[in-house]
Amino acid sequence: MARLTFVGGIHPSDGKELSKAQPIREILPKGDMVYPLSQHIGAPARPIVGKGDRVLAGQKIAESAGYVSAPVYASASGTVKAVEPRRVASGDMVMSIVVDNDGQFEEAPARTVRPVEEMTKEEIIAVVREAGIVGMGGAGFPTHVKLSPKEPEKIEYVIVNCAECEPYLTSDYRRMLEEPQKLIGGLKVVLRLFDNARGILAVEDNKPDCIALLRKLTAGEKRIGVSTLKTKYPQGGERFLIYAVTGRKINSAMLPSDVGCVVNNVDTMVAIYRAVAEGKPLTERIVTLTGEAMKNPCNYRVRIGMSYEELLEAAGGYRVTPAKVVCGGPMMGVALFDLKIPTTKTATALLALSKDEVSAMEPGACINCGRCLEVCPGRVMPSRLADFAQHYDEESFLKYNGMECCECGCCSYVCPAKRPLTQEIKSMRKLLLDKRKKQGGER
CATH number of the domain at 136-278, out of 4.10.520.10, 3.40.50.10490, 3.40.50.11540, 1.10.3210.10? Predict the structure, then answer.
């Protein structure tokens, strides 16, 4: 069996055995629901409800504030308590709609559904936009924008990122096993937008049961295939996934559509299906609760806006006091200092680690071993870029292609000197991106 991959990458212990065998569990929130107005790349949504208003589950409570924006929907019924800044996983304070959950989960009327075969391409994209769907793998790019390239006739591949290469995470794995028809249904919807495209379900080979099931369900589909990827981090990164599946390369100044590709992850494809086929806006997602310190590792169907604190309590809490709690995976997630923050459209996991190996490390001087170069999937020079970042040498940082770093963390993982390479490079990239934005040069 051919296993597609890219140059570089690492093989960290994946920790997926903690939660992969546990089926998705349903959970209903009891406390307040908090809906940040910025859960996506682009302009924050604009609230259309105010304090004292009663809202229903599935009701739009904030509308798009521009083309690159996405509306927000309530996932529980109740009364709006406030529209005020609330802290999110990144540590930022974001304007949010706070709803006093009445526990009834009374639903707003669903949108009238028409057979997808009767819908025009423009109508499908409009439904996706109105449903508030964004990339749910972490970036949060509004999906309707991704589905509207300038030259749709040049799109040759619609790739579904089924790799789930981040250690510990198993939410996509459970989706593929438990709701494969919705996943494939979402892919079929997207393929209707691109007449010359072939759909590819790209799965790492550590999920043989998913590969077998998806191949069985797509056996009669002329435009859909399943590609087996080599298990390696960061195989699910957009650039590396495209290269592994098609052999085509993109850089930080390009979009996947520039090489004839559209890429969406598993949860996003399911959300597309639910919006188009069932008339449901985006109000829920699957979140993995896992880690050696977690009492009952599992995957939960979470109503967006529910707090991590309540989610953890429903999962039984901690087995032991965690040394570190991370929102997301260990490679690209962010450490949390407070769980009284809301889950969002891009929430993937709550990871409780029994050991904090990173904090225990004492960085030393670079020994010029070259390991960071060997594993870097972006094929840049992490050790040198980190030096430039430390000295705020923007000119050299750009000269040596610092903006091509994908911030995957591979270099920091293998560095024998324990240097925080990724963190240094990430800080410099953020500084430069902010500068571009102020100068109006952001693409």
Answer: 3.40.50.11540
